[in-house]
Amino acid sequence: MDPTWSLYGVTVAEIVAASIQKTSSDALNRLRALKHPAALSVYLVLGNQALVNWLVHGNSPEVVSLANEGIAAAKKDPSVPRWRVVTGETDLALYFIQEGKNAEAEALLKDALDLDNRAGRPGLATGVIASHLGTLRAQAGDLKEAEYYQHRYVEEMVRVVGPENARTGEAGVLWAVSLSRLGRNGEAVQECHQALAIVRAAEPARSPRLPRELSGCAFVLNQAGEAIEAEQNARESLQLLNGGRAKDPAVAQSLTELGVALVRQHRYEAAIPALAKGEQIFLDNPGYGAKHYSTIRASEALAAARAGLGAVAKTQK
Q: What is the average per-residue pLDDT within 97-111?
């Protein structure tokens, strides 16, 4: 059924959202009525209510409060599997990242990684947490530690899902980006080519996973001075994202790398609209903002494109 279809002015999507919200609220009320609820029940019900509140109402302090209460209850009770706590802390960290609260996110991720390691069963979650920490460390300018965490992501994916899995290819692209930011461009390009080949072999032609890997490799290629190949990757990524949301940071990343590639080919006029749109998406997203590395990259490339176009105009007078 079309979620935009309405009955007496109320859409199907709104009816479904209201139903989910009522079910979740009823469960929370029943839990609050218990004198000694089981810790796992507290974790599950409060975590679900936090998720519903976020989906229906957006970001709010109540989302954080509910999630923290559920996680705290689970951490106190040793009968609750540690992977539950790891999952809860990781999910809340991702919420904080979307809010641009990186310090809070990093503290949660480090605690989740420590819990996962002490549980003696490192697996898929270990690599994913390491990757998020790598991204946060890169944003903080700690490029060596960022490279350490992204390389650990690769190692965990090879161990858990194998060298030919798409997740391993994704990890490889992120590691290549971190190598590139350290100036190790030759290694980065080689790793990106291998990782992208893994993703292409493992995923369908129009896989939603592919645009991000193409954009990451476009960054690596731009940093290595391979602007033509970088442009090709960025354009392919944008073509796959054609149906994506206009405010999606993934679109902004691809637009930025396209613009950087065009600037490095001295195609300034073509670069400006791509960079301007990418910059604006980053500025409008609370998880990015003016001080984020991606925004700064788009802004600097846009300034270079405008300066280049101005210089060309002067020589033609």
A: 92
Bridge partners for 80 per DSSP: none
What is the CB-side half-sphere exposure of residue 203 using CA atoms within 13 A?
Answer: 20
Give the C-alpha separation, 317 to 310, whole Å. 11
Token pair 């009522």 is at which residue? 22
Pull the structure tokens for residue 92: 């809340």
CB distance 252 to 274 below 8 Å: no
Indicate whether 211 pLDDT > 70: yes
Phi, psi of 81 (to 5 degrees): -55, 140
User: What are the residues whose beta carbons fall under 8 Å from the beta carbon of 148, sequence distance 6 or more?
Assistant: 134
d(CA 65, CA 225): 47
Burial 268-306 (b: 16+ CB within 10 A, else e): beebbebbbbbbbbbeebebbeeebebbebbbebbebbb
pTM: 0.81
CB 90 within 8 A of CB 71: no
Residue linked to tokens 């954009």: 215
Residue 121 has a pLDDT of 64
Residue 5 above 60 pLDDT?
Answer: no
Q: Determine how many CB atoms are found less than 10 A away from the CB of residue 117.
A: 13
217 in Cβ contact with 192 (< 8 Å)? yes
pLDDT in tens, 8-25: 444 444 445 556 777 888
Give the Cα separation of 186 and 82 in Å (integer).
41
Q: Considering the chain, what is the average pLDDT of its residues?
A: 89
